[in-house]
Specification:
Largest sheet: 4 strands, antiparallel
Strand order of the largest sheet: 2-1-3-4
Number of helices: 10
Distance between the termini: 35 Å
Strand content: 5-15%
Number of strands: 4
Shape: globular
Number of domains: 1
Structural class: alpha+beta
Order of helices and strands: HHHHHHHHEEHEEH
Mean pLDDT: 82
């Protein structure tokens, strides 16, 4: 039994090593670091750029780092998922390397799990670099920062949020065997969720539907009605910030609103719909994220196992 386990571990690590070296040779990992550096720099310099064009002066912000959502947010998570996973499976089919890879005495399940774990390690290394840079930059630009012990929670939330999009990209890539279709299909899903936020959440008042869709989710407010209240995004892209807010403000109640189109001041009046504790929002978003990740990864794995390979 121990020999069998050791043999599987060795094969699994060989696939992980193969995938990481492939990412390095194709400069994927370097590209992710460059993109992370560029996006974080843009976030850090945003207020200074606005000030240079006549905006308000840059004020100290001790909560900048823990409130930045790793400096990425929903689009950043989607972008890194695309870069990380768009050709993890489909690229092997496109280049023909899937034939010699599967000809080795390694099961398809081991190959799939090794590739998935290598993608996770690549993403983890990139986000660790990003968080270190964001923390140092926050000190330089906005002064001393509060609650830096919560930064690992933000990192964990970012990983969790990105893995959902990675599972979607993997499924589309395995199904189509095309990196382009994987990227465009995932972009269509992401864009669709963005459009639904405005139409279902703000205009129709049916934001609860977005609770069961990956992405930014609906937007609620703590305290007062918009635009005076504190905005809280409830989707899977905001797991990290919501966990931090819950630790700092465990009693928060989030209220959802819709625009009162027929009111005395159309487009400016808001109707309160319902409220729920922040803890409920967090548990729901984590459960939804887990279900999507497990279902999409399992489906992708099944398709990969059943895929017909032709030379």
């Amino acid at each position: 039994m121990s020999v069998s386990r050791t043999g599987w571990t060795a094969k699994f690590l060989a696939v992980v090593r193969y995938e990481i070296l492939w990412n390095i040779r194709k400069k994927k990992f370097l590209g992710m670091l460059v993109v992370a550096f560029a996006l974080t720099t843009l976030v850090l310099a945003g207020d200074h750029i606005a000030n240079a064009f006549g905006g308000p002066p840059v004020e100290p912000n001790p909560d900048f780092v823990i409130g930045s959502n790793v400096g990425l947010g929903g689009f950043g998570f989607f972008l890194f998922a695309i870069v990380t996973a768009m050709n993890t499976i489909s690229g092997e089919f496109e280049s023909g390397t899937i034939v010699p890879l599967l000809a080795k005495p390694i099961s398809r399940t081991t190959v799939y799990l090794g590739k998935l774990f290598a993608a996770f390690l690549t993403l983890l290394a990139t986000y660790c670099f990003l968080m270190i840079y964001m923390t140092i930059g926050g000190f330089v630009v906005y002064g001393p920062q509060n609650n830096l012990h919560l930064v690992p929670i933000s990192l964990l939330g970012a990983l969790f949020s990105t893995l959902i999009w990675i599972s979607i990209v993997l499924l589309l890539g395995t199904l189509s065997r095309s990196s382009l279709i994987a990227a465009l299909g995932a972009f269509g899903v992401w864009l669709g969720t963005i459009i639904m936020v405005g139409t279902l959440g703000v205009l129709a008042g049916q934001g609860w539907i977005l609770t069961y869709i990956p992405g930014v989710g609906s937007v609620g407010y703590v305290g007062e009605a918009p635009p005076l209240g504190i905005a809280v995004s409830t989707g899977t892209d905001s797991i990290g910030p919501n966990l931090i807010n819950y630790i700092l403000h465990p009693s928060w109640e989030v209220t959802y609103y819709k625009i009162d189109i027929g009111g005395p001041t159309p487009g400016q009046s808001w109707i309160a719909l319902y409220s729920e504790p922040l803890s409920t929002i967090i548990l729901t978003s984590i459960a939804v994220a887990l279900v999507y990740f497990i279902v999409f990864v399992a489906t992708s794995w099944y398709l990969f196992r059943r895929a017909q390979i032709t030379e």
